[in-house]
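User: I'm curious whether this sequence folds into something compact or stays loose and floppy. Could you predict its structure so I can see for myself?
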Amino acid sequence: MNLELIWERFLSILSADEAIDNVYYKKAAGIPFLYVQRKEDGSQKEIENRIRHASAGAMKGRQLHSETEFVRKDGFLLVFRHRFYVPQRKMFCCGNLCPDCIRLK
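Assistant: Here's the prediction. I'll summarize afterward.
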């Protein structure tokens, strides 16, 4: 699965939002950081909710999860550590009678 396509869709959804002036992301040491320039009337909680909804829209129809953590703010610029990841659970039965078998759920 190409996560770059998910990131592009996610950023396009966020950039179309009326509470956000500018949005981009950079990777530092392999960790993606999301930079959100909010408008004057937008609060941090509101921006976090909009990020959550944009993530859900970008991941729709795929087995992905997202994780967002606030890092810092500088005036109207908010920085988040945001990542999309594939869940680390068994997706099929291997036949070894594992205690956490997908058939038992």
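Summary: The longest helix spans residues 44-59. The chain has a mean pLDDT of 87.
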